[in-house]
């Protein structure tokens, strides 16, 4: 296909006049050329496409634009919530990127490094914010008031906590879509759903169980404390998962399981790594893996089986299913504890059988 | 195979490079093929066809391989092509995929000997009894045949994926860089290379930075630069030490606190670095900007140009769909007065360093009809919208121009848009200024 010589764009010497040389490569018919660009590019990249304008994505992107339109920093008051949400969303996306896809070729090390840096940064922030917590621990009165205000918030907060626990090794977009819910809920709720103290929305996930039922403090919350001490970076996710997992009968899991469980979990890492998807092995084979993400995978399997969601369901369906489940289950799991007289030895017993069960689930999946 | 071949992913162009005179233009694609174009010499008899590029040679450079140890495929995609300076009638180039670099020699054959004594025209041995006299074979012209042969294969030098190669000004050595290491090779020796940069940490879990691009200085054979995923540039002197882990100069711009976001690090990752032809400056491309650095000033770039600042508010979505990891290249014109880089929606941008003017152009068949002019495009971000403006929301992020090249002496540019190659020429200003 030959093109003619073109008219000059401008007679002025200072303007450029770029025009197409009589050259098109590859030499094709025009019809093929026009259709050529489309299929090739669409074939090549499944994840990319129009960023906005296609129905399914629009909600997410609108939501995203709303989140990221402003300059977000942790110090702003009302935008702290959206900052936290954005951070959570990015955290989820990052985990999904690392563990979701199964390339035939080695994944780009640069991409992996950048995503890991992102996760680390978010972890560091969570850790730093988590260090504010001790101020709220001692008195029961503030915790009651906190618990009241936090009860109002649970649906939104639980979302922000629960999704990271299952980083989507099911290979679905639902964890992402699940993240939509916090924002949409937030848009409906007012800011006063959250406590006046800016630190609470962050703290609440980690303290949700203890303040909610102060009487359960002796076994359950102390167990939570131990979990937090041992795994400070991922406290919010693990605690929530541990709590929600309780309904499965893994009551002892959250208990002193932690010192045994996770310690046992760590030597078992090599075993687990073999059973996990291939790309995971790639990242671990380069030795490039943080403890946090491994633990997330561990708890991820527990958590998702409880929710029992189909990766292909729509965003609204899944999200709405998740909202009541997490909050209600949380409360349900805590209720039995408060009524039972818990002996120190009991958690240990339940804990060993539960550990076996969990290990089976993990290794089997 | 049907004649109407559906364009496949293998046709996606992955690198574009002019040779040192601009006479030849090489492209590599995802399928491991290299296509070389040659500029037709200008002739008075056909003034309309002056300066056109035609296909000169096509060959398969790399084949897909399988790494049995890791159970992974090694892509045959050509990551980079670099021409060697021409030293005789033949042309040579280096082409590389993720793991292996190959040196190809391109020769022309336009004459062939005729009149052998022992063989006939078809090459069959003559019956000696029919040979009555001796003749001297003569060279007769034949149709031009371009022959390409692999002269060297530089394999097993890299554990990680090769992202750059650069030929040294000494014309004897070249370097290849992967994510964590840079090796120095001699063009004639394939069984060993020298490691000159190694940023691999003892514990891979401590890895936070990778090498993204590297290049030799155009005049000083001891100097080279490499860029990192954290946005820093390191100029190294090979005379200082055998292992150039310690940089001679570190070029880094402090982060702008008003623009801080979760994605600050990712968008600061340098995707390409190019020395100016003069050797005085460096050009870097990160996700949203191109920057010109003066080798004498490490603190900050001397010029920064916004390529698509309107994407800053979309970074989360671009992170989610992986576009934020796209590696755009950048290019100088021959006189170092204009810089060029690609963007999305098949747009590419040019910045005139002297007049500070910039232009956005589009490489698409629809907008390049006969007799049409390539008109500047504009992306509107809200506010007043002119008729032909494109809104940010309707940009096509699958149409990205990652690879561009500028003729070393003239205003001719080559733009790779997915599986199409466009060559544009500025007829008004064919001289550079």
From TrEMBL, chain A:
Biased composition (Low complexity): 138-148
Gene Ontology CC terms, in alphabetical order: nucleus
Pfam families per record: SERTA
UniProt-annotated stretches for the region Disordered: 36-58, 130-175
InterPro entries: E2F-SERTA_domain_protein, SERTA_dom
Residue ranges constituting the SERTA domain according to the UniProt record: 83-130
Protein name: SERTA domain-containing protein 2 isoform X1
Organism field: Phyllostomus discolor
Automatic annotation (TrEMBL), chain B:
Record keywords, A-Z: Repeat, WD repeat
Cellular compartments per GO CC: protein phosphatase type 2A complex
Superkingdom to which the source organism belongs: Eukaryota
GO molecular function annotation: protein phosphatase regulator activity
Family in the record: Belongs to the phosphatase 2A regulatory subunit B family.
UniProt name for this protein: Serine/threonine-protein phosphatase 2A 55 kDa regulatory subunit B
Gene (UniProt): PPP2R2C
């Amino acid at each position: 296909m030959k093109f003619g010589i073109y008219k000059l764009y401008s007679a002025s010497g200072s303007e450029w006049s770029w025009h197409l040389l009589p050259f098109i490569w590859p030499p094709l018919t025009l019809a093929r050329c026009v259709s050529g660009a489309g299929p090739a590019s669409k074939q090549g990249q499944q994840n990319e496409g129009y960023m906005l304008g296609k129905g399914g994505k629009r909600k997410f992107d609108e939501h995203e634009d709303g989140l990221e339109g402003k300059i977000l920093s942790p110090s702003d008051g009302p935008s702290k919530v959206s900052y936290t949400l954005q951070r959570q969303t990015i955290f989820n996306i990052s985990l999904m990127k690392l563990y979701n896809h199964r390339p035939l070729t080695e994944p780009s090390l640069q991409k992996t490094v950048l995503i890991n840096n992102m996760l680390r940064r978010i972890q560091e922030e969570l850790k730093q914010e988590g260090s504010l917590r001790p101020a709220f621990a001692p008195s029961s009165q503030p915790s009651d008031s906190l618990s009241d205000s936090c009860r109002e918030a649970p649906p939104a907060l639980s979302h922000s906590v629960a999704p990271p626990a299952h980083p989507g090794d099911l290979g679905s977009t639902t964890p992402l879509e699940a993240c939509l819910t916090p924002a949409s809920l937030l848009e409906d709720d007012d800011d006063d759903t959250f406590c006046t103290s800016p630190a609470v929305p962050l703290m609440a996930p980690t303290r949700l169980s203890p303040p909610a039922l102060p009487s359960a403090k002796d076994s359950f919350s102390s167990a939570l404390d131990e979990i937090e001490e041992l795994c400070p970076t991922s406290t919010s996710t693990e605690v929530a998962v541990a709590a929600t997992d309780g309904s499965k009968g893994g009551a002892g899991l959250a208990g002193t399981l932690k010192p045994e469980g996770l310690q046992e979990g760590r030597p078992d890492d090599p075993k687990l790594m073999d059973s996990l998807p291939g790309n995971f092995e790639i990242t671990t084979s380069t030795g490039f893996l943080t403890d946090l993400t491994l633990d997330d995978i561990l708890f991820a399997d527990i958590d998702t089986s409880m929710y029992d969601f189909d990766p292909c369901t729509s965003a609204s369906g899944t999200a709405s299913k998740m909202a009541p489940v997490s909050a209600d289950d949380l409360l349900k799991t805590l209720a039995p504890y408060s009524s039972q007289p818990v002996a120190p030895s009991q958690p240990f017993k339940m804990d060993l059988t539960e550990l076996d069960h969990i290990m089976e689930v993990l290794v089997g999946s | 195979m049907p004649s109407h071949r559906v364009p496949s992913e293998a046709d996606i162009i992955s690198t574009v490079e002019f040779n040192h005179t601009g006479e030849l233009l090489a492209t590599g694609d995802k399928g491991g093929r290299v296509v070389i174009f040659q500029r037709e010499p200008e002739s008075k008899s056909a003034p309309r066809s002056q300066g056109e590029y035609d296909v000169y040679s096509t060959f398969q450079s790399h084949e897909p391989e399988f790494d049995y140890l890791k159970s992974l495929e090694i892509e045959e995609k050509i990551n980079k092509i670099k021409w060697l300076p021409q030293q005789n009638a033949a042309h040579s180039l280096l082409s590389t995929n993720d793991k292996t670099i190959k040196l190809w020699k391109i020769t022309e054959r336009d004459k062939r000997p005729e009149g052998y004594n022992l063989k006939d025209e078809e090459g069959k041995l003559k019956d000696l009894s029919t040979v009555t006299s001796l003749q001297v074979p003569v060279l007769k012209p034949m149709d031009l045949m371009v022959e390409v042969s692999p002269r060297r294969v530089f394999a097993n030098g890299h554990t990680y994926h090769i992202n750059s190669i650069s030929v040294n000004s000494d014309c004897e050595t070249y370097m290849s860089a992967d994510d964590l290491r840079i090796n120095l090779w001699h063009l004639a020796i394939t069984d060993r290379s020298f490691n000159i940069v190694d940023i691999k940490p003892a514990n891979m879990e401590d890895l936070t930075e990778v090498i993204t691009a590297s290049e030799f200085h155009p005049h000083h054979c001891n100097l080279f630069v490499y860029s990192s995923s954290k946005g820093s540039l390191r100029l190294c002197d090979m005379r200082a030490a055998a292992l150039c882990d310690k940089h001679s100069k570190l070029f880094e711009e402090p982060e702008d606190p008003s623009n801080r976001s979760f994605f600050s690090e990712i968008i600061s990752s340098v995707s390409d670095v190019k020395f100016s032809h003069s050797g005085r400056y460096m050009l870097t491309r990160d996700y949203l900007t191109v920057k010109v650095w003066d080798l004498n000033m490490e603190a900050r770039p001397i010029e920064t140009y916004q390529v698509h600042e309107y994407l800053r508010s979309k970074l989360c979505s671009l992170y989610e769909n992986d576009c934020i990891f796209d590696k755009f290249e950048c290019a100088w014109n021959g006189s170092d007065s204009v810089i060029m880089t690609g963007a999305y929606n098949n747009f590419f941008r040019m910045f005139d360093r002297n007049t500070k003017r910039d232009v956005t152009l589009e490489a698409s068949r629809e907008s390049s009809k006969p007799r049409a002019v390539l008109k500047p495009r504009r992306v509107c971000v809200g506010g007043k919208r002119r008729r032909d403006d494109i809104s940010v929301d309707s940009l096509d992020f699958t149409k990205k121009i990652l690879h561009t090249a500028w003729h070393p002496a003239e205003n001719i540019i080559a733009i790779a848009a997915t599986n199409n190659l466009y060559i544009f020429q500025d007829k008004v200003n064919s001289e550079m200024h």
